[in-house]
Amino acid sequence: xxxHHYSYLALGDSYTIGESVPLxxxxxxxVVQLLRKSGKHFYAPEIIAKTGWTSAQLAEQILHSKxxxxxxxxxxxxxxxxxxxxxxxxxxxxDFDFLLRKALHLTGEKNKQVIVLSIPDWGFTxxxxxxxxxxxxxxxxxxxxxxxxxxxxxxxxxxDITEExxxxxxxxxxxxxxxxxxxxxxxxxxSEKVAKIMAEIS
Length: 202
Prior knowledge:
The protein is α/β, with parallel strands linked by helices and 202 residues long. The protein is built from eight helices and seven strands.
């Protein structure tokens, strides 16, 4: 088993590509580096993500992307732009259900090899200083309830990274230079959580 090379598909938005940090500091790449250091054989992560994407845009891109028939692991982190743009939570629920079903299909219905990450709370960043932080946080929590409920129903892993994202108010080292996205240090925290789950299965 140790000789098997594992594949990993990361689906998402700016948080998945690591907006404002070097590519290798985004959490998908840090996940793979952690696993390689522990002796696991992993291909470089395949990433379908773009800054600004909503759940519908991610779903649309997946439909038009040439993907492998299957992947050993898939992570899904999406929803912040739905909240930011004031889009319907009902539509997000439908989109999220589609994305999760797609992720499951791509792992051969191996639900423990699909990992959902919660949506970070940008309301605590300096970018949101003049906005209603309580309202943003409440909305992020509502979207995350959809993610958690969907994940629980499908039996996939769910990782809460929202609480970590709220630490930027006191720890500026977790912020990227744009004062909205997160630094390599924050991505390292996320990657440890993801890698721990993958290490138990690979």
